[in-house]
Predict the structure.
Amino acid sequence: MKYYLISGEASGDLHGANLMKSLKNLDAGAEFRVWGGDRMKNEGGVLVKHYRDLAFMGFIEVLFNLRTVLKNISFCKKDLLCHKPDVLILIDYPGFNLRIAEFAHQQGIKVAYYISPQIWAWKKSRVHLIKRVVDRMMVILPFESDFYKKYNFKVDFVGHPLLDAIHFEPVVDKKTFLSKHRLTDKPVIALLPGSRKQEVSMMLSEMLKVIPFYPDHQFVIAGVGNFPDDAYASFTHDKNVTVVFDETHQLLRTAQAALVTSGTATLETALLGVPEVVCYKGNSLSYQIARRVVDVKYISLVNLIMDREVVKELIQGELNTQNLRKQLDLLLFDHAYRSKLKADYIELVSKLGSLGASDRAANLIVSMIKPG
């Protein structure tokens, strides 16, 4: 069977690659054409577009890059018609993917959506389009089933694929990791500034300002390997900080605490048991627009899933050195605070379902397209 997958960021590349692995276990003749990244390519996908060329963060940034976005949409439609897949598999990335879903539906191509867009946060009206053009929706957050149920749309909760990604990946012991990257035995504070260029440029300069206040710790940045060589150097050239590329989970396993840009990484950090502060700062106009259209109490997946504040969120003006120091002190030195956070993380894991999300999703997709 021929599978066409579209993801628009690093987390989608990870989950798409694991889904491809599960699909190959069910379909020995599987052929993949993908919009994603190196992980999906390494699983045997023909890489059409890399997510680094697709990821625009914020309303204003998308507007400035609208010509590129529209060109990509047009190209994707032509590519779909040229290759005629048995199923189109969409992974989050709603602004792009919902347009492609509508087109594919019109062309008679079956549409599976793996990892629902966060329409429960904003643009709830998109649910009507989803009902019309998506043949099967597979959700990974426990409250999403209830959301869709309000609109009389049956979806499949498959559990969260990060549970699999973390459980089955090889683990390097701390001593080996530190030695490999010439790190000292000082406690590690991990900095996760994001996977988009815009995020890194906005977030990293704020995170690095706390370094002088923690001389007994070492700071390590979770770098994205497909960034240009100077993407981090312009921020770190005069700072006592190390960049480790494409080993985020290994880095987190060594860390005593982490500063994490809002996104999937906040959940990854929690699932690995690392105390964290969630950080977000964006273009001021984009942020003001988001405040008016986004209908959620929290920005981090951890707090959204738990439906209460488990990890501290420092957003826009609140993301400053004084607040970062205050929260880091709690994470590093307040035993009661760390213990409470650990207990909350255990509860979080229990809410996310069991291992096997990729396998369950693959089974549902294959059942859509198998003959008979």
Notes: The radius of gyration is 21 Å. The first helix runs from residue 10 to 26.
